[in-house]
Amino acid sequence: MTDPAETSACKALWLALIERMILDACGISCTELEHDQAREWLFSPNGDFNVACVLADLEPSSVRARARQLVDASDQGLTLDADKPKKAKRTKLKDMAYTIDGRTMCLVDWIKEASVSTPTVYGRIRRGWSVEAALFTPAIINGKPRGVGRRPAKSAADRSIPSA
Q1: Same domain, 35 and 75
Q2: By residue range, what is the domain housing residue 139?
Q3: Which long-range contacts does 143-148 make (Cβ < 8 Å, 24+ apart)?
Q4: Largest separation between any pair of C-alpha atoms in the chain
Q5: Pairing mode of beta strands 140-141, 78-81
Q6: Region 112-122: what's the mean pLDDT?
Q7: pLDDT averaged over the chain?
Q8: How far apart are the first and last CA of the chain?
C-alpha cells in the first residue's frame, strides 16, 4: 500500500503540470514553441492528457472544457476569475514592446534612440500616428525641421557690451 503523503505529493505534481500547460496555452511566461505544444497537448485527443488528469484525480473532459474557456478568454484579452470574465490590466504604453526593422525594444528605449522628444512621441501616438512615424519623423518648428535656420549661438566675446 502506498503512503498517503506520497499519493498527495504525486497528485499535487500532476495538478501543477496541468496548471503549467494551461498557463503556457494562454501564452503566460513561455516561448512560442511551448505555447503551441501546450495547446496541442490540451486540445488534441491524446492518452497522456487523460493519464495526467486521472493521476491528478480530475475528469479529463471537465479539465479540457475549463482549459478551453481560459485559453479563449486569454486570446480575447480577458482573464477568468471564479467564472467571471474580467478585462486584463492594460499594459502601459511605455512598457509595450515594439519591433521596428527587426529590433524589439520598449517605447522608452526607442525614444532614447530617436531624435524626437518624449512628449512629442506620446502626443503623436495619442493623435493616432504609428509608433514608427511618431519616433522617426523629425519635429517641425515654424515650417522647418527642428534645428534648421537657427542662428548659431554667440560666443562670450560677441555677447559683451561694446565699449564706446
Answers
A1: yes
A2: 93-145
A3: 146/115
A4: 112
A5: unpaired
A6: 87
A7: 79
A8: 112
Amino acid at residue number 15: L
Work out the pLDDT band at 77, boundaries 50, 70, 90. confident
Report the number of distinct structural domains present in the chain. Answer: 2
122 in the same domain as 80: no
**How far apart are the C-alpha atoms of 111 and 117, rounded to whole Å?**
7
Q: What is the rounded distance in angstroms from the CA atom of residue 153 to the CA atom of residue 159?
A: 10
Distance of CA 50 to the CA centre of its chain: 32
- Which residue's entry shows cell 511551448? 34
Amino acid present at 14: W
Q: Exposure of 107 by Cβ count < 10 A (0-12 exposed, 13-18 middle, 19+ buried)?
A: buried
H helices of the chain, in order, are 4-25, 32-43, 47-55, 60-75, 107-113, 118-126, 131-136, 156-159
Distance separating alpha carbons of residues 125 and 128, to the nearest angstrom: 5
pLDDT of residue 155: 55
Q: Look up residue 66 and give its three cell numbers.
A: 475549463
**pLDDT at position 27:** 87
